[in-house]
Amino acid sequence: MCGIVAALAARNVQGILLEGLKRLEYRGYDSAGMAVLNEAGALTRQRAKGKVAALEEKLVHGALTGRIGIAHTRWATHGKPSEVNAHPHLARERLAIVHNGIIENFEPLKRELEGDGVVFESETDTEVVAHLIARAFVETDDLLAAVQTTLDRIDGAYALAVMHADAPREIVGARKGSPLVVGVGIDENFLASDALALLQVTDRFIYLQEGDVVRLSDNRGIEIVAADGSPAERPVHAFEHGDSAASRGEYRHFMLKEIHEQPAVIAATLEGRLSGSHVLESSFGVGARGLFERVAQVHIVACGTSYHAGMVARYWLEKLAGLPTTVEVASEYRYREVVVPADTLFVTLSQSGETADTLAALRYAKSRAKTSGYLGALAICNVPGSSLTRESDLALMTQAGPEIGVASTKAFTTQLVALMLLTLSLRKSRGDERETTLVQALRGLPTVLDSALAMDGPIAELSEAFAEKHHALFLGRGTQFPIALEGALKLKEISYIHAEAYPAGELKHGPLALVDADMPVVAVAPNDELLEKLKSNLQEVRARGGELFVFADEGVALTAADNLRVLHVPAVDEFLAPIVYTIPLQLLSYHVAVLKGTDVDQPRNLAKSVTVE
Ligand code: F6R
C-alpha cells in the first residue's frame, strides 16, 4: 500500500530516491517524505502532505544532500494523511524508518514506550517501531541485531527500511507480508517495494522472502538473514520488462497505455503455451499434468477485479470442463469454515501476488491441505517472485508486464486468457474439436482486440452521456455478468460515479425501480444463447424511460432508437466474448473519468497493491 525506496550509494541519493518515489506513487499518494544522512553525520528530513510533487517542491527549496537515505510514499492506515504522520519517522534524532504495512500490537507497545518516557510525534504505528529499534540499538550497537530484536516483538505485516546516524554506512530492511526487493548496483545497493522504482539505477534484483532481514553496507555488501536466523543466499534476477514499462510514452495516462497494450500482452501470455491445436499443460509447472488429471472440482479465491476474472472462469470450468467450481472473495473465504470436497484444486488470482487477503486465503487453504480435499494450490499471477507464486505449488504467470494505473485493465484480460488455458488443460476430453476451435480463437484474439480498441472514438463520444450522471447500471447475463460487474467497478473507481451491475434477469426483482431518464443503463449483449432473454430484459428498461447503451455483436438485431444506442463489438468465439467486451467498458470508464477531470491513474482513496487486510 505504501511505497518504500532506500539507497546506499557513492553519490548524492536525493535524485535516486525522488525518482523512485515517483515510480512508486501508484502504491499510495496521500503524503511523501525522505530522510538523508548528511556528510556531517546528521539526519535531515523533508516531508509533505499530498503527492510526491509536493515533496519535490519542498526539496527545491530545501535540498537534502548525502550518500545514504530512505524515502516513502504513504497510503494512510494509522493516522490521517498529514505531514506529521508522513514517513520517515525518527527516534532519538539518530534513527529514521520507513514502513509499509500494519503493526497489529502497536497499542500495548506504545503504552510501554510511553511508560519509558518516549513522547510520540505522530499517530502512526510506525513510530513505535522506530523507538523500539532505537532502544535495542543502544543495547546491541548493531543495527541488524536491533531490528531483529524488535521484529520478534511485532505482530502484523510489514516491509521496512531503517538507518541510524551511528551506523552511517548501513541500511537494514525487513519483509513479512509486504514486498521488498534489493536492487543490486555496482558499489551501491538499494531497497524498494517494487523493482520498478529502481530501474533508473539497476536491472538486477533480489526478491526477499517472507521473514528475511537484509543489511546493505559498504564493507559487507548485501547480507541476508532468513526468518530462522540463519544466513541466506538469494538469487539475483535480471529484470525482464524494459524500463518503458514505467513511462507513459505517447499516452496521456498509464491506464490508456495499458488498455492499448492488451493485444500485445495477451499474445505474450499465450506465447509458448500453445502447441498446434492444444494447450501445453506443462506451462503450469512441473507436476501439473499428474495433478490436473485428478482434479474433480475447483475453488477460486481472489479480490476485486481478479475476483471478477474468477467469476467468468466458473462458467468456463463448468461448461467446458464439467468441473463444479466455486469463486469467492478472499476476505470472506479466509474466515470461513470451508468444506473442501476430495480432489479440489485451489486457485488464487492476483495481479500483484501480494494482496494480503488473497495471500492469507492461500495460507489458510494450505494449512488445511492435509485434512481437507485440496490437491494443491495454483497461482495465476502477474509478478514473478511474488509471495503468492512462491507459496503456491503451481504458478502460471500472466505476461501483462508492470501495471501502473491503479485501475486494473491488462492484468484482468491476461488473467482471463490464463484461466481459459487452465479450463482447457483441465478438460478430460483433451485434444477434441472444442479445444482445437478455442486454441485457434485464442491465437486470433490479439487481432480481434485491436478491432475492439478501434471503438475508442465512438466511445469517447458516448462518454458525454455519463459525465453529468451520478449513477449507472450495468447488465449482463452468463459470462457477461462478471464483465458488467467489472465495467461498473471501473466506472466507480476512476470517475466516482456510483455504478452497480446486475445479472439482467434480476432487474425485475428490485433494481428496475431505480430506472428513469437519469440512470444510464449499459448492457453487454454478445450473440450468445442468452441473447433473446437479455433483449426482453432490455425492453423492461426501455418501457420505464431508461436510457440504454448496448454493446452488441454486429449480428444482433437491435436498432438504435431514441433512448437506445447500439455500439457494435467485433465478433469472436462466444467463450472469448467476455475478454473482447471488457475493452469497450474499460474505454468508457476511462473517457468518462477524463471528462470529469478525475485523477485517472491514481484515483482517490485507493492504492495499487493492497498489502494490508
Ligand atoms: C480494481 C483493482 C482491484 C484489484 C484488487 C486485487 O481495478 O485493481 O480491485 O483487482 O485489489 O488485486 P490483485 O489482483 O493484485 O490481488
UniProtKB/TrEMBL annotation:
Domain SIS, first and last residues per copy: 288-432, 462-603
Entry annotated with the keyword Oxidoreductase: no
CDD domains reported in the protein's UniProt record: GFAT (cd00714), SIS_GlmS_GlmD_1 (cd05008), SIS_GlmS_GlmD_2 (cd05009)
Cell location: Cytoplasm
Annotated catalysed reactions: D-fructose 6-phosphate + L-glutamine = D-glucosamine 6-phosphate + L-glutamate
InterPro entries linked: GATase_2_dom, GFAT, GFAT_N, GlmS/AgaS_SIS, GlmS/FrlB_SIS, Ntn_hydrolases_N, SIS_dom, SIS_dom_sf
Designated name of the protein: Glutamine--fructose-6-phosphate aminotransferase [isomerizing]
Source lineage: Bacteria, Pseudomonadati, Pseudomonadota, Gammaproteobacteria, Oceanospirillales
